[in-house]
Write a structure and sequence with these properties.
alpha/beta; 35% helix; 23% strand
Length: 118
């Protein structure tokens, strides 16, 4: 099974980097069943992992998109140091998102055949 690591570096809203990264992840899962998706949230992207996101009708919702990726078997981890620096390391994350570290991140980078950065 091919493994693809998607790195998200930007906040969930304000730019469309997280949105585009998750669109890619969801499309890969739908169109390529043999692909295993791993997503690592760095810097302001750790805010993507927070639950209870409320967006206007018709606007994308990062929480729903992450839940979809997780439901289809994707793994999502948030950088612990980045979360701590932003004061959210003790908050509850979306079910299925795990607090992680640079060691796990580096292991994923080595084991995945492809790395996409947003």
């Amino acid at each position: 099974m091919q493994k693809i690591l998607i790195i998200i570096n930007d906040a969930p809203y304000g730019t469309e980097k997280a949105y585009n990264a998750l669109r890619m992840a969801m499309t890969l899962q739908k169109e390529h069943k043999e692909v295993e998706i791993k997503i690592f949230l760095l810097a302001d992207a750790v805010f993507c992992a927070l639950p209870k996101q409320k967006t206007p009708d018709g606007f994308y919702n990062i929480e729903r998109m992450l839940k979809s990726v997780i439901k289809r078997g994707g793994e999502v981890k948030a950088c612990g140091g980045c979360s701590q620096a932003r004061g959210i390391d003790t908050l509850e994350f979306i079910d299925g998102v795990q607090l992680s570290n640079m060691i796990e991140f580096s292991n994923w980078a080595v084991e995945c055949e492809k790395v996409l950065s947003f």
